[in-house]
Amino acid sequence: MKRAGIVGAGLIGQAWAQVFARAGWSVTAWDPEARQREAARKLDRVRVVETLEEAVRDVEYVQECGPEVLEAKRATFARMDAAAAKETILASSTSALMPSTFTEALAGRARCIVAHPVNPPHLVPVVEVCGAPWTSPETKARTIAIQREVGQVPIDVKREIDGFILNRLQVALLTEAFRLVQEGYVSPEDLDHTVAEGLGLRWSFMGPFETIEMNAPGGIPDYCRRYVGWFRRYMADLPSAAVWDDANWAKAVTAWGRDPTPGEIAAKTRWRNERLAALGEHKRRQKPYP
Fold this sequence. Notes:
The chain is α/β, with parallel strands linked by helices. It has helices at residues 11-22, 34-40, 52-56, 70-83, 100-103, 137-149, 166-182, 188-203, 208-213, 219-235, 246-256, 262-285, and strands spanning 3-7, 26-30, 46-48, 61-64, 89-92, 112-117, 126-131, 153-157.
């Protein structure tokens, strides 16, 4: 049986444990906090251990899910690199740190990589696989193969870029969304409807390239020729970084007008996860385009 180690058993770590366990892997998990270890013990087919070294011993693949703090990430990877077998892949779930920033000094840096998931990874399958300049091609190929084996959809990030791919797309949309609300063009609720009941319906099974290919009779070249004039006008009026100044993002928050309690957020998270699970099952039942 193949074995995976989870280092950091918070919400993301627990979700990763579920991904590997449901794929038939043996999973060991560790977290520095006792309460997180206790929470992870409730998972099926997951063995919780008391030290990081136990979690990474005799495993094929490690998924690290610790804090987004550079020095903490460096320290964790140093411990993992010292304790894990030389052939073990050491992958990080980081969404904010490029792999070169915390693996350069490691003796085993060639087997270190980022495998950045979308929250929650057991329900949203995309994983961005990004190596540092010194990550070996074999490490990346094995990571991609493992992610496919456990039911995820790996994306090959060909070279390092801050934020990787998904977050850069997300922040572009969020920045325009906040700008449109801040400047009074639309309410936050109608902005959300625009995505959930418009763009999001197509994007739930097609990406932007595939979408625009069908928006002009001659495909993407035809689409670009038709709309390049407006695109150029829009690019001359892009929202600036000032959208994220405190006084400006606060305008959008005030317009949103909600102040949910932690309990209400937890309840809505459960509702979201149920919807994601149902959507995932629906997509799996559909036939792909020939």
